[in-house]
Write a structure and sequence with these properties.
Length: 366
């Protein structure tokens, strides 16, 4: 490679060319050209609205695209009442839709009037939201540019049913206050229903909502994320911090979950301090041998001799044991009932001598 470079330099010197300029230019940027149309005032993140083309310039799609979705039985009356409104809205975008009440299915498909290739995916999201309990006026907003939807499945995160219901209610909060705070901070619509959480809003807001919901189902309270979002909103107002890291301003929450052994040790220490005794750690004696295996029922029966008894003898022994336990319980209950009839101890009336002595002590004290 060095020989090739030296040959090129010698050849360039013979021809009288300038080699220094070519060496300064990076080889990755050698073929790049200036873009006079790409200036700093252009917003590359701006979503340009897509309007319907003229009838003369419009060409239909080659293939028809369609999506079908099942809906629960309880949504049938509502869908029947608003399906005309949904049909007219989708027709304005050049889409067709059908409602099959027998099969419990909704479907949407493109037509020859469709001009936006991505609107079919938006219509699919509309059907998802309608099936999950979102109202039709709110669900139809997903057809607009800049608004997306996300359906978070929370059923498989927590196994215990009671714990799942408690954590799902934690997302809503007392009187819906937590849910309202999440909606205000993320500019998203959130609906908690059944085993899913339906969200609508910007892509950035949906990302925050999903993180809050997943963390809540993993036993991290939403208030921690809400506090972080409030601090971020205030920091975004300061232009001086635009190019700086915000880690020093954000709160850092530490987990305080204890293991079962730690909880037991803490409980024992608390019990000992309540009794006035200092907590003592028991010294464990090291034994290199493993613990003896637990005896099976057969081994116990062989040791006690029950294994060699006849069936009638076994029944008689079991009957005698039951009668003995029954007699013990009967005796215990009889003693408890008789406690109510035991007369309390009565103090005898003071004698004449005792009353005289008491009166004399009182007179001496005067």
């Amino acid at each position: 490679m060095a020989k090739d470079k030296s040959k090129k330099k010698a050849r360039a010197e013979e021809n009288g060319e300038d080699v220094a300029v070519e060496e300064q230019v990076n080889k990755n940027k050698r073929h790049r050209k200036d873009k006079p149309w790409d200036t700093e005032d252009i917003d590359h993140w701006k979503i340009e609205p897509m309007t319907a083309p003229d009838a003369a310039s419009h060409t239909p799609f080659l293939e028809e695209s369609s999506f079908a979705l099942l809906f629960p039985k309880y949504r049938e009356p509502y869908l029947r009442s608003v399906w005309g409104q949904i049909t007219s809205t989708l027709d304005s975008y050049g889409l067709g839709c059908t409602l099959d009440l027998i099969a419990g299915k909704m479907s949407v498909h493109t037509t020859r009037k469709t001009w936006d290739p991505y609107i079919i995916f938006k219509a699919r999201d509309l059907l998802k939201l309608l099936a999950r309990g979102v109202s039709a006026p709110q669900a139809m907003k997903v057809l607009q540019d800049g608004i997306a939807c996300d359906i978070v499945k929370i059923s498989g995160i927590v196994r215990n049913k009671e714990r799942f219901v408690k954590r799902r209610q934690r997302i809503v909060g007392p009187g819906g206050s937590t849910l309202k705070a999440i909606e205000l901070l993320t500019d998203c619509y959130v609906l908690v229903q059944g085993n899913t959480v339906s969200c609508m809003g910007s892509y950035k807001g949906l990302k925050e909502v999903r993180r809050i919901i997943i963390d809540c189902m993993h036993n991290i309270h939403p208030i921690y994320r809400i506090k972080e979002l409030m601090i971020r909103r205030e920091l975004a107002k300061d232009p001086k911090l635009a190019n700086e890291s915000w880690d020093r301003f954000l709160p850092k929450f530490q987990k305080k979950h204890l293991k079962t052994s730690e909880k037991t040790a803490k409980k024992n220490a608390a019990a000992g301090s309540a009794a006035g005794e200092p907590a003592k750690k028991k010294a464990k004696v090291y034994t290199p041998f493993p613990p003896a295996p637990a005896q099976s029922k057969l081994d116990v029966a062989l040791q006690t001799g029950e294994y060699f008894l006849k069936p009638k003898e076994k029944e008689a022994a079991a009957r005698a044991e039951r009668e003995e336990r029954h007699a013990e319980k009967t005796e215990k209950k009889r003693a408890q009932r008789e406690e109510a009839f035991v007369a309390p101890e009565e103090k005898a009336a003071p004698s004449l001598e005792e009353r005289r002595k008491k009166r004399k002590r009182a007179e001496d004290a005067m």
